Amino acid sequence: MNEDQLPPAQQAPSSESPSDRNGPPPANGAAILTGDTFTTGTASDHADDASRAVEDVLQSDIGVSALLNRLKQSISSARDFAAFLGKRSALEEVHASGLRKLCKTTHENIRRADNRQGSYAQQLEEVIRIHERMVENGLGFSLSLHQMHDDLLELAANMERGRKHWKQTGMNAERRVQDSESLMEKAKAKYDSLAEDYDRARTGDRQPAKIFGLKGPKSAAQHEEDLHRKLRAADTEYASKVESANVQRQELLSSLRPQAVKALQDLIAECDSGLTLQLQKFASFNEKLLLSNGLTICPLNPSAGSNPESRSLRDVVYLVDNEKDLKSYVMGLSSKVQPKATEFKYERHPASFSLALPAMKY
């Protein structure tokens, strides 16, 4: 008994390693057989399968309605985000306008006589000017969001018009095919019913008692001839309906449905791209707002020099000198101080001399 004839448990062990027995690794895209599992070497086949599955759905009877629903979702999302942008813009405008009024009121109050002056008043005015620049940043942000709101509403309106157009065009084409197939089924049912009646009349399987016509009772032969004539007419009508249904379906599959699917896909892509663009702009404008306010509060190269805009908010408030302000306030009152008296001197009034002299006796 040679080695090939040994049972599996008795065969001589092989000197080849498992990798030698399996052979070299397959190239990209080649099939791999591991145990009972069959896989592919790359993910491109899976992507192709997914694309084919998507195309099968889109070119089916539910393709147009599915894309219409998907476009409706995109339009709804665009309108919802537009509403968010509108409200966010209004909130920012209210905040900026309120801050502007507060800055104006504070400016007026700073120079009131009953308020502290000096370095405190000077630096507080600079703090208010920093806030006024932040107000301008907020108003610019609000205007940008309002423009985005208008752009999204215009996009949604255009997409809605396109959706209504292709809903009417695409669904009418689908409905015409369904109607032609329904008429074909009715013609087939009529044709089958007459064929069965004609077959029974021809074979004598079921003879009616009497058949009455406009000219009196009909014989079996006359009845059979009448059914044969109706059957030929039904056959012609049925064949015509089949041909019409085939023509309608062929036109739908080759032209009308692909056009509607392509147009709806383009509308969905345009709507989704527009919405995504506005999302990206929203993120960018938020970054710009925060960065502008941050640079206003703390410039990249803060300096305590003569240019106020080059100083950070921290530098500005740290320039408040309480001791200097107090000295300045006190020094401002120097003109109101009376001259100092060096030493008080007693000066007697002449009328009081008699009080000091003793009385004279005569």
Describe the 3D structure.
The chain is mainly alpha-helical and 362 residues long. It contains 8 helices and 4 strands. Strand 3 (211-213) and strand 4 (216-218) form a beta hairpin. Helix 3 runs antiparallel to helix 4 (119-203), helix 3 runs parallel beside helix 5 (220-297) and helix 4 (119-203) runs antiparallel to helix 5 (220-297). The longest helix has 85 residues, at 119-203. It is rod-shaped and about 180 Å long. The relative contact order is 0.10.
- Rg from alpha-carbon coordinates: 50 Å
Strand content: under 5%
Averaged pLDDT? 80
Secondary structure tally: strands: 4
Helix content: 55-70%
Task: Quickly give the structural class.
Answer: mainly alpha
Provide a quick synopsis of the model.
By secondary structure, the chain is mainly alpha-helical.
Note the topology.
Blueprint: H1 18-22, E1 31-34, E2 37-40, H2 44-58, H3 63-110, H4 119-203, E3 211-213, E4 216-218, H5 220-297, H6 313-318, H7 322-331, H8 353-356
Antiparallel strand pairs: 1-2, 3-4
Helix pairs in contact: 3-4, 3-5, 4-5
Summarize this structure as a short list of keywords or feature phrases.
8 helices, two-stranded antiparallel sheet, rod-shaped, 362 residues, 4 strands, 4% strand
